[in-house]
Amino acid sequence: MKKHFANEPSPCKRWRRWSRKNTGIFASLHKQVTIGVLSCSMSILLLTTPEDIFAQSFETDSVKELDISEITVTGNILPPTRTAVLPIPILDRTDAAVAPLQTIEAALRLSPSVDVRERGSKGVQADISIRGGSFDQTLIMLNGVDFTDARTGHQSHSLPIDLDIVSGISVEDGTAGIGAFAGAVNIRTQPLRPTYLRAEISGGQFGYAYGNLSGAITHKRFTLFGAGSYRASDGYTRNTDFKNYNAFVRVGYDSRRAGYFDGQAGWQTRNFGANGFYSLKYPDQYEATRTFLSSIRWQKSIGRLFLESSVSYRKNFDRFEMVRGDASKIPFNYHNTDRIGASLRSDYSWVWGTTSLHGDYRYDHIYSSVLGKPLHSPRKAKGEKEGLYTQGATRHSGDIRLRHTKQIGKFDIEGSVGSVFSSYETTPVWSLSGGYRPIDGLHIGIAAVQSMRLPTFTDLYYTATGYISNPNLKPEKATTYRLRATYQKKNWRTAAEVYYRDGRDIIDWVQKNADSEWESQQLTRLGTLGIEWSGGYYGNGFLQQATLAYGYMTTDKKSGDYISKYALDYMRHKATACIGIRFLRYVTLTVTAGLYDRNGNYIAADGRQTPYRTYALLDARIAWERRHLRIYIDGNNITATRYCDFGGLKMPEGWFTGGLVVTY
Predict the structure, then answer these.
(1) Which domains does the chain have, with CATH numbers?
(2) Which residues touch 123 (CB under 8 Å, ≥6 apart)?
(3) Confidence band for 520, pLDDT divided at 50, 70 and 90
(4) Using CA atoms, how far apart are residues 44 and 41, in angstroms rounded to an integer?
(5) Which of 229, 261, 441, 541 has the greatest CB tally within 10 Å of its CB?
(6) Which of 657, 663, 590, 655 is nearest to 623 (CA)?
(7) Residues in CB range of 432: below 8 A, 6 or more apart
(8) 205 and 658 in contact (C-beta within 8 Å)?
(9) What sections of 56-172 are H helices per DSSP?
């Protein structure tokens, strides 16, 4: 029997006799089969995401009789969803294979829920925020494990994975607890097949080079899955060169008696020129980071009881040079951060639903040359020829939550209460949600969630030329209300949502005027109202897909006399479209377009306060694929649009690349 990964496929039966008759699937068992209530979801080969399961419907009048070879069917006990309002799917593997997407950041740009603000390109450095929140208010998860950086959200996206091993990305904004103030981005990895080997190489303008090798081996109840990559460029303008390495491995083992074990580990190094990334006054900035992360999860079902526990660790080193290679002008900044996490959950299913008890613990620590409280004695910066850690900080936090879910016919409800414990204060958190499925394919959900986040070490301690820290900051708090409806009929899908977030004690960097210093302060209150709609057609003929998405957002808090660096520079209007066609049997053409209108102003290099301009982007991929080989050409920003995600920081005006993929 095979086991893949937690929340993915699990123990399997192999069916060798297959027919369209109602009982044909069970004929190979040579046993009497009694069908009752199943506590597991079933899938063929690889399980889709939970939201896909709810969305699927089958039309029996369109079924064709085919003789197919032996297949494997797998099933896995799925823990209850966190909320009756389903997570928002952003991307699945099918979309990523044909779209002009080379990085996770590029994939997130297509969602109206997510605002991706890049410095440089090809995923060099990006801030990821959800529905008007800041990048520090977004929880980043890899396979359901929180790896958010406690020093700064600038580093939270530093995950050692590439798009080829990503099976899906979803947004969860119904999560109570620590960190997910505005929501969470969950990135899931999964092998293409139980056993395979894949290699990709590509190159293009600006000295761009990319190489990737990934694969998996599955033997009985054991699965080993790994990937490694190299990505580099000379840069699209002065001092925007980069060189990145990723390595990732995931292991799954299903023990009949002990339960299921799922482990993952990864390493990333990034070195990049940062021309004006953090200050337009300094074009020679440079940054080098190293990130290691790991986790192990255990799951076990004992009758009606489901148990899950996990431990995780994240290590990050960062060296920032305001003047590249010259510490004599401005000293380099060195940071060394650790995060240890532990989680324990128990679910008990009984006649009145499922009751869950969930507890989390986090330990965050930092050594730094600029962040924290003074150390008794300096420490040498690890992995560096020079540099000292002169400051440091430590904090402990945790939460405990009690949750109950119940399905009654076409209705499902969920409620939770809990508390977050930290050195700042004890904060109550709660959630309440409900869902209704009146007809096949239609789901309506409503939810209210109270969330919070702790200040980052940068919020608390960062002081430099032009920046004043505030060690007295308190946790941010928010209550989010959302109403969402999704519908799927055959090849058509659509979704609509309205939401409102009431944020309190918002942390933001603000300044009075262009000549004053940035200060870390807490704006009293920030209300965010938004609507989103998406819809599309997905087919298998000439038209592969045609989708549209739109999001609108506004806030009821003005910056007044203050200039805001982050919190008030939200994406006001965002519209995206994607169309994909297949022709000449083996050729696909996919075009994506986006229209972006950002609220707020920025200080230009000449000192003038400048409003953000509306801009449009057009990307395309043409690919030829047959059997084991795929050849593609990508064009990003093919209209050579001049734009910036951060004020005055110009992005590439067109970038063309090409590559080939071999899969066995």
Answers:
(1) 12-76 (no CATH), 88-255+266-307+320-383+395-663 (2.40.170.20)
(2) 102, 103, 104, 105, 106, 157, 231, 244
(3) confident
(4) 10
(5) 229
(6) 590
(7) 414, 415, 416, 447, 448, 449
(8) no
(9) 93-98, 104-108
